[in-house]
Amino acid sequence: MNPSLIAVTGATGYVGGRLVPRLLELGYRVRCLVRSPGKLTGRAWSSHPNVEIVRADLTNETPLAESLDGVEAAYYLVHSMMSAGGDYARHDQVLARSFAEAARTAQVSRIIYLGGLGETGPDLSEHLSSRREVEQALGSTGIPVTVLRAAMIIGSGSASFEILRYLVERLPIMVTPKWVSTPCQPIAIRNVIGYLTGVLESAATVGGVFDIGGSEIVTYRDLMREMAESLGLRRRIVIPLPILTPRLSSYWIHLVTPLSKDIAKPLAEGLRNPVVCRDRRIAELIPQPLLTVREAIDEARKRIAARDVPTSWSMAGAIPGDPDWAGGKVFRDERKLRIEAPDWAVYRAVCRVGGGHGWYAAGWLWKLRGWIDLLVGGPGLRRGRRDPETVGYGEALDFWRVVGLERDRRLALRAEMKLPGEARLEFLVNPTPRSGCELTQRALFEPRGLFGLLYWYAVAPLHHFVFGGMLRGIEREARRLAAEL
């Protein structure tokens, strides 16, 4: 008898990317419905015999229904906050209704949704109100929907964890809004996955709405204290001011942490609402050891230290299509260098760019560009990278995004810093007939209007230091890696 087929939307995201391998461990067949299948290339579980990866457009009901054919239960883990900007709430409703219609057509037995914890009422933030509206949209066609409502999720790579860690690490004295005293009930990502998988085996959860949380109710001030103690830092001084608005808070989060103001604003708005479990039914239906706040923080830090971070908040979101490089004026800076090292060593050296390792040359110029980008609303250099050695499709490398890769041959990056145009950086590794290989480094820029032209001519003189130095740095690193073998 074949195991049940489970569909997972959002498999490229933070929670979905951790849910899929757990479902496989439990013996289920999993069909991942994703808009960018390439993002799953390189995931350890993507080649599992019980995994199907299907390109899906949640706005197109007919092919979506075909993608759900034969599915018993479907996880809905989609949130467009990172890709739809300020209009994310309306966009989320459209996607949820489309998914519900497609699920009804495909005769899916149940939908499982991870929503947001919080009291109902007129004072609910737009972020949490949107989650409630998605719940209603998913249930609009009559399919039973199991809703799990969570507050802050603590885990290596989660957005909430990163905000907390960066604020505590970088600010010994913090001026905060009054929400610093708001009660919340954080939950470890391990426990979230435990509840998400547990509901599949519990008939009593079909069509139910459940609050999920950890073992403790704390304030955000308590969370900052726990984080400081876990990091071995002195107690942080927190000064709450009622005049600070969610908008001002989001700009502050944008400046201090890796998250952009567009993501930070809805999160900051949600912090004003108490997010505490109103019932504990789920704990009786799906018993599991619940981590304390300190245990969840320590577990996340251990995973980061061990370079065992399977998913990160920065991996979510749409990847814009490549610009039409043939459609207009494209500036090109191409450099080649013959390197006496095997292709694997050169490729590995290329893949180390960004994050703590830096960009091999002109570090002060990269930092300056990062600060400028940060001040004009871009991501800057703060996002770093998920792993110091390996990269995957769709991952962030500082203010670049991986949009193409071929093992030992090619790495392509698309710029996400604020620019008057579209920029891309490519590395091509080609073995030579005798020994070693040739590394081609190609910077492409398609300007947008007069400012785009002025920008290119302004930065072009610096390319010798930035790109030329990077090429030579990659050569040194490749030779070192080859010598260590």
Quick summary of this structure?
This protein is of the alpha/beta class and 485 residues long.
Salient structural properties:
20% strand, Alpha-D-Glucose-1,6-Bisphosphate, Chain A, domain 4, 15 helices, alpha/beta, globular, 485 residues, Rossmann fold, 3 domains, 7-stranded parallel β-sheet, 6-stranded antiparallel β-sheet
Structure description:
With 485 residues, the protein is of the alpha/beta class. The strands form 5 sheets. It has a 7-stranded parallel sheet, with helices on both faces. A 6-stranded antiparallel sheet has the order 14-19-18-17-16-15. The relative contact order is 0.10. The protein has helices spanning 16-25, 61-67, 88-105, 126-138, 159-170, 189-198, 220-231, 246-256, 261-270, 281-285, 293-305, 343-350, 363-375, 449-459, 463-484; strands at 5-9, 29-34, 51-55, 73-76, 110-116, 145-150, 153-154, 173-176, 183-184, 187-188, 209-212, 218-219, 237-240, 331-339, 396-397, 400-406, 410-415, 421-431, 437-447. The radius of gyration is 23 Å and the shape is globular. It is built from 15 helices and 19 strands. Residues 321-327 have low confidence and may be disordered. The protein has 3 domains: 1-149, 3-Layer(aba) Sandwich (Rossmann fold); 151-306, Rossmann fold, CATH 3.40.50.720; 331-484, Alpha-D-Glucose-1,6-Bisphosphate, Chain A, domain 4 (2-Layer Sandwich), CATH 3.30.530.20.
